Amino acid sequence: MESIKTIELKKTYGEIKAVDGINLAVREGEIFGLLGPNGAGKTTLLMMLSTLLKPTSGTAIVNGFNVVTRPDKVRESIGMVFQDPSSDTLLSGYENLKLHALMYNLPLKEINKKIEKVLELVDLQKRQHDVVKKYSGGMRRRLEIARGLLHEPKIFFLDEPTLGLDPQTRQHIWTYIRALAEKIKMTIIVTTHYMEEAEKLCNRIAIIDHGRIVALDSPENLIHATGGDIVSLKGQKLNLKELESLTFVKGIKIVEGKFQLAVENAGKNLQEILSTAGEVEFVKVHSPDLNDVFLFYTGREMREEGDEVGFMQDVTRAT
Amino acid sequence: MNIRKVLKGLYALWFREFRVFTREKSRIISSVCLPLFWYFIFGNGVGSAMPAGAGNYQHFIFPGFLAMTIIFTGLFAGAYIVWDKKIDFLKEVLITPLSRTTVFFGKAMGSMTDALIQSYFLLLIGIVLGIPFTLSSILLSMLMLFVFANGLISLGLIIGSFMESPEGYGLISSFVIYPIFLLSGALYPLDNLPGWMKLLTRLDPATYAVDGLRAVILGTSSMSFTANLLVVLGFDVIMMFVGTWAFKRMKL
Ligand SMILES: Nc1ncnc2c1ncn2[C@@H]1O[C@H](COP(=O)(O)OP(=O)(O)OP(=O)(O)O)[C@@H](O)[C@H]1O
Ligand SMILES: [Mg+2]
Q1: A260 located within any domain
Q2: I need a labelling partner for A200 at 20 to 30 A (CA). Which of A13, A50, B41, B187 fits?
Q3: Pair A126, A235 in one domain
């Protein structure tokens, strides 16, 4: 059975098409990534799937229930970690969890045992009785992940669970999520705009842009589709014609003043490329990552400044 | 409907509100001290200008200040739900399987507890200050305060459910708080008012709460305690209906 199915799902705010006709089928037990830049519509999509927002049109079925006609059933099936922190800072971590357990009607006798279990999962037992105000951003995120899991949902939504956290904490959170997916059988839908995260964690990824899915496949296949390695060149008078005629050059694009070559086996062929190209001011070779995939499908760069760049070697030559 | 589920949900929402209340010491202190402060300022200030003298005037306005704590906390409850929207805690509540009706009543119960602790505490202070209480007048006052709190807190939640920012809420609620308080006859007798103003006071639910409290505490009122109580109860019923409706249509 499919965990989630949407048909032409749309949400518009006046002129803005936040979600613009999304068709999705997420399998049971899958870790499914939604990758897209700011404003792509990821949060809006999750809000509709979790019944907090009414779709403008289209259908969404979650765990077999329609989000519009059976929101109660949908809500019983899902857990959610919101993009923005949503725990009460005046309550302790334990109290936040207890509240959640009661609202989900967990049997009173089991509540403490279950809280203990999820706290262990996110490694917060020691700080459980501190008020959340005293938690760091990462701890608060972990608490909210624990809270979302407390009622053992069939489907777990995580909206940018690592946004705004330092790299080390991000690493931690992903480790938790991965461990979780192994321990508990459930479907996980996660949004992010960090590609290397999506790449490592997800079984399949949907790339979203302007409220639409522009590509959907496993990370390996998505990357494979872009064709080999990427060689970026910069120079005033490059011999583009000659470059294009090389058999191992699969395509050339201009991105932000640089020429991007899709190259088969760049490690072996770099020498020949450079000698063919002529006067080169700058060379960069990297294995394609999801950013290149995004570029490939949308013709735009997705990465913002400040993001780290994955597997990359810089080779700069003085001219 | 699953009773257990509803009860646990109500308890959870109540517990949260109450915990937050006990953790915010400044809120407790100010909500008890502020009415007392006004009570002494008005009682002595305006009272000294009264022909009957400050003592009688203080007795006259005491019921009004009991009602005042309820009016202020009731509207504070509304502000709290706007706050929940802002800190995104409301999303966490609305995504649970609890019905909106349960959410409404859970929130109302939480704020009721805050409001009643404060107004019952002032009732105790009234005894210390020499307001002529009897056991039955204390119990009936408590009943009236309970019923009145229910209606006003529902009103606060209704306004809050429509508002998006705490700032907006502050503005709107002061347009509600002050008329309700000032038109209630808490500070002056309503008998000699011009006709149009008398009509306004008749539309103010606090008028009946204050009059009912005066009926049992001071033995002077324009309507009987029971009649006043029934009017306030009617107000409650309307507010609860509108409140559950407002929560059902509330968007994030
Ligand atoms: N309540 C709203 N009113 C008007 N426009 C909205 C509203 N919520 C979202 N939008 C718009 O819808 C679009 C999609 O927003 P959404 O928050 O879903 O993006 P996102 O992919 O989650 O972005 P981010 O990575 O920044 O979280 C944006 O253009 C946004 O401005
Ligand atoms: Mg978002």
Answers
A1: yes
A2: A50
A3: no
- Taking the centre of ligand 2 as the mean of its atom positions, its distance from the CA of residue A99, in whole angstroms, is 26
Q: Which amino acid is at B246?
A: A
Asked if B120 and B142 touch (Cβ cutoff 8 Å), the reply is: yes
For the CA of A212, the nearest ligand: 1
Residue A306: inside a domain: no
Nearest residue by C-alpha to atom 29 in ligand 1: A39
pLDDT of A302 reads: 67
Q: Are residues A202 and A56 in the same domain?
A: yes
Q: What percent of chain A has pLDDT over 90?
A: 50
Atom 16, ligand 1: residue with shortest CA distance? A41
Residue of B nearest to A54 (CA): B251
List, in order, residues 6 or more apart from A296 with CB less than 8 Å away.
A225, A226
CB A160 within 8 A of CB A193: yes
Ligand 1 pocket list (CB less than 6 A): A 13, 16, 18, 36, 38-44, 83, 193
Q: What is the CATH number of the domain that holds A280?
A: 3.30.70.260
A273, A267 in Cβ contact below 8 A? no
Q: What is the pLDDT of residue B148?
A: 96
Taking the model in full, what pTM does it have?
0.86
pLDDT tier at B146, thresholds 50, 70, 90:
very high
Q: Give percent above pLDDT 70 in chain B.
A: 98
CATH number of the domain to which A68 belongs: 3.40.50.300
How confident is the model over B115-140, as pLDDT tens digits?
898 889 889 988 888 888 899 999 99
DSSP for A213-229, written as a single string = EEEEE-HHHHHHHT-SE
The domain of B44 spans: 3-48+65-249
Count how many domains chain B has. Answer: 1
Phi, psi of B26 (to 5 degrees): -65, -30
Task: Return the residue in B18, B83, B95 with the most chain A beta carbons within 10 A, the one to mutate for interface testing.
Answer: B95
Which structural domain, as residue segments, surrounds residue A156? Answer: 2-220
CA triplet A53, B244, B251: central angle to 5 degrees? Answer: 20
Using only C-alpha atoms, what is the Rg of chain A? 23
To the nearest whole number, what is the mean pLDDT of chain A? 86
Mean of the pLDDT values across residues A55-75?
A: 95
Same domain, A126 and A262: no
Q: How many angstroms does the Cα of residue A38 sit away from the middle of ligand 2?
A: 7
* A193 and A261 part of one domain: no
